[in-house]
Amino acid sequence: MFTETYIEMVINNPDIQSLCKYNKGDWFWNGEKPYLYCKSGLGSSNPHDYKWLPTLEDLFGMIGDYRKQIDKPFLSILVMKKYKYKSMHELLLAIVMEILYNKSWNPKTKEWEESNGS
Are strands 27-29 and 51-53 parallel, antiparallel or unpaired? Predict the structure, then answer.
Protein backbone atom coordinates (compact mmCIF):
# COMPACT_ATOMS: atom_id res chain seq x y z
CA MET A 1 0.00 0.00 0.00
CA PHE A 2 2.74 2.49 0.95
CA THR A 3 6.00 2.49 -1.00
CA GLU A 4 9.37 2.99 0.67
CA THR A 5 9.71 6.31 -1.13
CA TYR A 6 6.29 7.49 0.01
CA ILE A 7 7.19 6.67 3.62
CA GLU A 8 10.41 8.68 3.23
CA MET A 9 8.39 11.55 1.73
CA VAL A 10 6.03 11.82 4.71
CA ILE A 11 7.80 10.73 7.91
CA ASN A 12 10.13 13.74 8.14
CA ASN A 13 7.71 16.18 6.55
CA PRO A 14 6.58 18.65 9.25
CA ASP A 15 4.05 20.27 6.89
CA ILE A 16 2.19 17.00 6.46
CA GLN A 17 2.75 15.59 9.97
CA SER A 18 1.22 18.75 11.50
CA LEU A 19 -2.06 17.95 9.70
CA CYS A 20 -2.55 14.61 11.50
CA LYS A 21 -5.64 14.42 13.71
CA TYR A 22 -4.89 10.93 15.15
CA ASN A 23 -8.23 9.54 14.05
CA LYS A 24 -9.18 5.90 14.32
CA GLY A 25 -8.44 4.34 10.94
CA ASP A 26 -5.32 6.44 10.31
CA TRP A 27 -2.12 4.68 9.26
CA PHE A 28 1.16 5.23 11.10
CA TRP A 29 4.79 4.20 10.65
CA ASN A 30 6.61 2.77 13.67
CA GLY A 31 10.05 2.71 12.05
CA GLU A 32 9.61 -0.83 10.76
CA LYS A 33 6.16 -1.19 9.22
CA PRO A 34 2.78 0.57 8.85
CA TYR A 35 0.16 0.20 11.57
CA LEU A 36 -3.54 0.95 11.47
CA TYR A 37 -4.83 3.02 14.39
CA CYS A 38 -8.02 1.32 15.49
CA LYS A 39 -10.27 1.16 18.58
CA SER A 40 -7.57 -0.52 20.63
CA GLY A 41 -5.00 2.02 19.46
CA LEU A 42 -1.50 1.07 18.37
CA GLY A 43 -0.83 -1.59 20.97
CA SER A 44 0.57 -0.13 24.15
CA SER A 45 2.22 2.74 22.29
CA ASN A 46 1.06 6.32 22.05
CA PRO A 47 0.11 7.17 18.43
CA HIS A 48 1.95 10.48 18.85
CA ASP A 49 5.19 8.43 18.90
CA TYR A 50 4.51 7.26 15.34
CA LYS A 51 4.68 9.07 12.00
CA TRP A 52 1.41 9.55 10.12
CA LEU A 53 0.99 7.93 6.69
CA PRO A 54 -1.82 9.84 4.93
CA THR A 55 -4.07 7.75 2.71
CA LEU A 56 -5.21 8.85 -0.74
CA GLU A 57 -8.44 10.04 0.87
CA ASP A 58 -6.44 12.17 3.32
CA LEU A 59 -4.36 13.63 0.48
CA PHE A 60 -7.41 14.45 -1.64
CA GLY A 61 -8.92 16.11 1.44
CA MET A 62 -5.84 18.32 1.76
CA ILE A 63 -6.31 19.62 -1.76
CA GLY A 64 -9.92 20.51 -0.98
CA ASP A 65 -11.23 23.29 -3.21
CA TYR A 66 -8.19 23.04 -5.47
CA ARG A 67 -9.79 19.91 -6.98
CA LYS A 68 -12.32 22.21 -8.67
CA GLN A 69 -9.43 23.88 -10.51
CA ILE A 70 -8.30 20.70 -12.27
CA ASP A 71 -7.95 21.55 -15.93
CA LYS A 72 -5.73 20.64 -18.87
CA PRO A 73 -2.54 22.26 -17.46
CA PHE A 74 -3.10 20.42 -14.19
CA LEU A 75 -3.58 17.15 -16.06
CA SER A 76 -0.33 17.83 -17.91
CA ILE A 77 1.44 18.16 -14.57
CA LEU A 78 -0.03 14.81 -13.55
CA VAL A 79 1.20 13.12 -16.71
CA MET A 80 4.69 14.58 -16.34
CA LYS A 81 4.94 13.69 -12.69
CA LYS A 82 3.64 10.18 -13.31
CA TYR A 83 6.99 9.08 -14.66
CA LYS A 84 8.85 10.33 -11.57
CA TYR A 85 6.77 8.53 -8.95
CA LYS A 86 6.03 4.86 -8.40
CA SER A 87 2.65 5.11 -6.69
CA MET A 88 -0.46 7.24 -6.64
CA HIS A 89 0.35 8.12 -3.00
CA GLU A 90 3.73 9.56 -4.03
CA LEU A 91 2.21 11.46 -6.96
CA LEU A 92 -0.68 12.91 -4.98
CA LEU A 93 1.59 13.89 -2.07
CA ALA A 94 3.87 15.71 -4.54
CA ILE A 95 0.84 17.58 -5.87
CA VAL A 96 -0.33 18.48 -2.35
CA MET A 97 3.12 19.76 -1.42
CA GLU A 98 3.41 21.76 -4.65
CA ILE A 99 -0.05 23.34 -4.35
CA LEU A 100 -0.10 24.03 -0.61
CA TYR A 101 3.56 24.53 0.29
CA ASN A 102 5.37 25.26 -3.02
CA LYS A 103 7.77 22.40 -2.35
CA SER A 104 9.01 19.54 -4.50
CA TRP A 105 10.60 16.20 -3.60
CA ASN A 106 14.30 15.73 -4.34
CA PRO A 107 14.84 11.96 -4.64
CA LYS A 108 18.63 12.35 -4.43
CA THR A 109 18.66 14.16 -1.08
CA LYS A 110 15.34 12.65 0.06
CA GLU A 111 14.16 16.07 1.19
CA TRP A 112 11.47 18.60 0.28
CA GLU A 113 12.81 21.74 -1.35
CA GLU A 114 11.30 25.04 -2.39
CA SER A 115 9.81 24.50 -5.84
CA ASN A 116 11.36 26.36 -8.74
CA GLY A 117 8.09 26.23 -10.68
CA SER A 118 9.15 23.57 -13.16
Answer: antiparallel
Query: Rounded to an integer, what is the distance from CA 30 to the centroid of its chain?
Result: 16
**Alpha-carbon gap, residue 42 to 67, rounded angstroms:** 33
CA pair distance 76, 43, nearest whole angstrom: 43
CA distances (Å), origin 15, targets 10, 25, 29, 75, 103:
9, 21, 17, 24, 10
Q: What tens-digit pLDDT sequence spans the chain (118 residues)?
A: 899 999 999 999 999 999 998 888 889 998 898 888 765 555 545 666 789 999 988 998 888 766 555 555 665 566 666 667 788 888 889 888 988 899 999 989 999 999 875 5
Q: pTM value?
A: 0.73
